[in-house]
Structures are given as structure tokens and as C-alpha cells.
Amino acid sequence: MKKILIGSYILIIIVVIFGIGKSGIFDSKNEKAIAAGEKVYINNCLVCHGETGKGEGSNSGTAINNQHFLSAVSDKDLYNYVKYGREGTAMPAYGPRLQEKDLNNLTAFMRNWQTKEIDFDVPKTISGDPERGLKKYNLYCLNCHGEAGAGKLKMGTVLSNPQYLQYTTDKQMWIGIAYGREETRMGPSLKGLEGARQLSKKDITDIISYLRTVKPKNEKINDYLTP
Ligand code: HEC
Ligand code: HEC
């Protein structure tokens, strides 16, 4: 009799553990972070980056729910972008405005937009000729991103921004330029992809080497809009 009792206790415990596993109680920490992050997002970011993060807010903001972008950045990168902002652009630094846990929750919320992991083909070393890069930049990028990456109203983001350059690696720039951001005006640049530019790997590498030499402009660019 005792044995049967112990046996049924064990069975109950197994059922309970299995039930908890299925119900996702162990995932609830992340679910909570995402929900809390959404609130912070709605209050602070929606006005520019839009309800769905496509940059469709009433003020200027980029497409941060973009799968190319999300596959190229780590959680730490997202956190740094928000914490340090981008001086001289519309993107404020939230370090002084939000608490640490809000920043972490926001990161969880943005990461939750990611639906796939994209593998990008990126050269192992990214070191090119900045002078050649300048010429290529002026031909293919200046139209939207302005002279020396100063950014252009309603056209292209600031690329000479000190925080952008500090918290973005060469590899991430390479991915952004080569593959672009789907559903934005930043189309792909790499030859063979469906973009207007059709640049070689060397062209892209040279442009990055050039962008690493640009000096930030101090004039404020208040507005930059995606269509
Ligand atoms: C007043 C408009 C505005 C607000 C408010 C704003 N952003 Fe931004 N954000 C921008 C713009 C514009 C950029 C691109 C700046 C540039 O490089 O030229 C940007 C860049 C970013 C980036 C870098 C991604 C990229 O496109 O390269 C992230 C991540 C981001 N914002 C997240 C947030 C979050 C999270 C909030 C809320 C806590 C927020 N932003 C609030 C306008 C805004
Ligand atoms: C037709 C206009 C246009 C052209 C031409 C263009 N871009 Fe862009 N670029 C954009 C826009 C708009 C974005 C922001 C997209 C978004 O909403 O997320 C962007 C984003 C970027 C980013 C990501 C920046 C960030 O803040 O994280 C990089 C890097 C970039 N462009 C580099 C280039 C380079 C280099 C060229 C030339 C080879 C180029 N772009 C050509 C419009 C353009």
C-alpha cells in the first residue's frame, strides 16, 4: 500500500514538472521583460520608430524591426545604441533618462521582433583604400547620406556620428551596406543582389575604410525621415 502511495506521489510530481515545462513558466521572465519593454517603447520610441518599429512614426526614425538589422546586431549593441543615442541626430541618449532595467527590457522587446537568423557572407578582413572609398561614396551614397556622412534631411541617416561609429563594427557596416535593410530606401549594394548599386566587395570595403576617416559634423540634424 505504502509503495503504491509513493508511486503515485512520484507520478504526480512528474506530471506537475511536465506541466510547468509546457506552460512556459520558465520562459516567463523573458515574457515579462518583453511586455515591460513594450510599455517603455510605446511611451518613448513609438513617436519616431513607429508602432511596428518600421520607422513609420510621425517623427523621423529608422526601421529597427528590420530582419537584416536584427540579425547583424547583438543585444549589447541594441542596448548601447539606445543608452548612448546619436549626438546631433534625432536619436536621444536614453542612459540619463531611463533606468537600467528599462534599457534591458527594451532590448528584450526589440529582440522579440526577430523572426529569423540570417547568415551574411562577409570578408574576413575589412581593410581597404579610403581614397578610393571616398570616390565611390560620393558616387553612390552622398545623394542620401550627405557629404562625408553628415546625413540628409528625409533622405539618409548620419554616418559620421561618433556614437554610430563607436558602437558599430566594420563587419556590421559591411552587412548594412552590402545587404541593405529590407523595406527601406537602404537597398542592397552588393553585386548580384537585387539592388540598384551592384558594387564589388572591394568597393564596399573601401567605402568603410573611408567612413572610418570622416570627422563628425557638429550641426544638428533634427529630422531624417523614412518614407
Ligand atoms: C525623436 C525621434 C526618436 C526617438 C524618440 C527615438 N529614436 Fe531611435 N533613432 C532615431 C533616428 C533618427 C535614428 C537614426 C539616427 C542616425 O544615425 O542618423 C535612430 C536610431 C536608433 C537605433 C539604431 C538603429 C539604426 O537604425 O541604426 C536604435 C536601436 C534606436 N534608435 C532605438 C530607439 C529606442 C529603443 C527608442 C526609445 C527608447 C528610440 N530609439 C527613440 C530617432 C528616434
Ligand atoms: C536612396 C537613399 C540611400 C542611398 C543611395 C544609400 N542609403 Fe544608406 N540608408 C538610407 C536610409 C533611408 C537608411 C536608414 C534605413 C532605415 O530606415 O532603417 C540607410 C541606412 C544605412 C546604414 C545603416 C546606418 C545606421 O544608422 O545604422 C548604412 C551603414 C548605410 N546606409 C550606408 C550607405 C552607403 C555606404 C551607401 C552607398 C554605397 C548608401 N548607404 C546608400 C538611404 C540610402
From TrEMBL:
SUPFAM superfamilies: Cytochrome c
Keyword Ligase: no
Domain spans labelled Cytochrome c: 32-114, 128-215
Name of the protein described by the UniProt record: Cytochrome c domain-containing protein
Transmembrane segments: 6-25
Alphabetized UniProt keyword annotations: Electron transport, Heme, Iron, Membrane, Metal-binding, Transmembrane, Transmembrane helix, Transport
Native source organism of the sequence: Neobacillus rhizosphaerae
